[in-house]
Specification:
The protein is mainly alpha-helical. The protein has one domain. It contains 7 helices and 3 strands. It has helices spanning about 10-25, 40, 60-80, 80-90, 125-135, 140-155, 170-180; strands at about 55, 115, 120. The protein has a 3-stranded mixed beta sheet with strand order 1-2-3. The longest helix has 22 residues, at about 60-80.
Length: about 180
């Protein structure tokens, strides 16, 4: 495989989509906690008065993104692009180590407003920002957005109206891009 001047690997956009699809298709789909509830994908951030509290995750998310991007880069340098891609997909898939909605240490709750760099976020925005930031190590922004959309199509949470964002919830795509450009 060849790399462009930005360090991204040519041809990985298609490969990542195929690998993500294969892993998602072979993963157990019986756990209803791994897919987003429809309200989480469509509903904008509710007014603050309807939320329980707000939690600033800036420091925690920055540390997590930096550590995981460094780990992914090390895997790539040590074992090559293919191994790094598999490591990334294994960690970001539903229920994976980087699927923060399912991680007890994050305790993410849809009834809480999260703050990152002074911006109010939904609970699912945090994982999308992380996905974009860490994914920047290996992939182009477009490849990450396409893979995110593919997972949503498979999970059945996509809508035809999401065609402009590769069939992913437009807010999810926005958060992925935000994380990607934090790099």
């Amino acid at each position: 495989m060849h790399a462009d001047p930005s360090g991204h690997i040519f041809g990985l956009a298609l490969i990542v989509i195929v690998v993500v699809a294969a892993i998602v298709l072979t993963s157990s789909t019986s756990n209803s906690n791994t897919s987003k509830p429809e309200s989480a994908t469509e509903t904008p951030l509710p007014p603050p008065e309807t939320k329980i509290k707000s939690v600033d995750v800036t420091s925690q998310l920055n540390k997590e993104m930096t550590r995981n991007a460094e780990d992914l880069s090390q895997v790539s340098e040590t074992f090559g692009a293919w191994a790094a891609m598999m490591y990334f997909v294994e960690n970001v898939k539903p229920g994976g180590k980087w699927d923060f909605k399912s991680q007890a240490e994050w305790s993410l709750n849809p009834d809480v407003i999260y703050i990152y760099n002074g911006n109010e976020l939904r609970y699912d925005d945090i994982g999308n920002i992380h996905y974009g930031y860490v994914g920047h190590v290996l992939f182009s922004e477009q490849a990450l957005l396409q893979a995110g959309g593919l997972v949503q199509v498979y999970a059945g949470t996509s809508k035809l109206s999401y065609y402009n964002s590769w069939f992913d919830d437009p807010r999810d795509s926005k958060m992925i891009s935000y994380g990607y450009h934090l790099w």
